[in-house]
Design goal:
276 residues; globular; single chain; eight-stranded parallel sheet; two-stranded antiparallel ribbon; 12 helices; alpha/beta
Length: 276
């Protein structure tokens, strides 16, 4: 009887230790805003990128690069433990960001890239205000809706609403959640557009006095399936900041219930693309 009791207590102790380890294990991360641009590729090899992701617990990424060759290089690594979701970026060179939506060469470029048959979305692209009424932007929005592709837009709220008007129901990731868009406006747009997902990089108001901003916390709790994280490695120096960004996100999410934190950290991204 004594031996049975000791065995039972040992089992309970091991179980508690296991549960404690799970509770304190850093959250996996789905990086839903990553660029592997040509400038970074000269100093950050694909192998180095994959190794850093593995070390930091980044288990999946939404990859967009200028040009798209960077994304293809990452896919070619065949890392079994890191899921790479490729998006088609409509930029060949940096200046394309300014007029891609009015450039016939970009339209031909996008059509050719789509023939690869690998892309899950189009973006990240930059467009603001009434430029979002450009005929090619409307065409891209309708194409994405027809082909069940996501859009990834770096835009103000005006442009976002114009895009969603062109193709009601199209799935759209809002880069940086507008950066400075008021949270009241964000909440109103969530209520109006159920296929709008917000990405959180470069929002300077996420924390307040070292803790999660209460207004953001309320939004996260009300819409736990509408947010994703991102590093936005848009310049090469930003790659050096990725460890600090991961630490920041995990600290911020630590102020949320575990199930909500898990959704924002990685489960929303996986669900968006049907990944296990």
């Amino acid at each position: 009887m004594k031996r049975q009791l000791q065995s039972f207590l040992l089992t309970c102790s091991l179980l508690m230790m296991s549960l404690s380890a799970v509770a304190t294990e850093p959250l996996p991360i789905f990086d839903a805003h990553m660029h592997y641009n040509i400038e970074a590729r000269s100093t950050w090899s694909p192998q180095r990128v994959i190794a850093m992701w593995r070390q930091l617990g980044i288990r999946a990424v939404l990859a967009t690069s200028r040009p798209n060759d960077g994304t293809l290089d990452l896919i070619a690594q065949n890392a079994p433990d890191i899921k790479i979701v490729p998006f088609l970026r409509p930029y060949r060179v940096q200046p394309d960001r300014h007029d891609w939506f009015a450039n016939p060469e970009i339209e031909r470029f996008v059509e050719k890239e789509l023939q690869r048959g690998i892309y899950r979305g189009i973006g990240e692209f930059h467009i603001f205000g009434k430029d979002a009424d450009a005929p090619y932007m409307a065409k891209i929005a309708r194409l994405a809706k027809a082909r069940d592709l996501w859009l990834h837009a770096h835009s103000d709220e005006d442009a976002i609403e114009r895009i969603l008007f062109h193709a009601p129901g199209v799935k759209l990731i809002w880069a940086h959640t507008g950066m400075s868009t008021s949270l009241d406006k964000v909440e109103a747009m969530f209520a109006q557009y159920p296929n709008l997902v917000s990405e959180l990089s470069f929002r300077s108001d996420l924390e307040q006095d070292g803790s999660l901003n209460p207004q953001w916390r309320r939004l996260f709790l009300r819409y736990p399936d509408r947010f994703v994280l991102g590093t936005d490695t848009w310049v090469t120096s930003r790659w050096d900041d990725v460890p600090q960004l991961m630490a920041f996100y995990r600290r911020m999410l630590g102020d949320l219930p575990r199930d909500v934190a898990e959704r924002i950290a990685y489960k929303n991204g996986l669900a968006m693309f049907g990944l296990p």
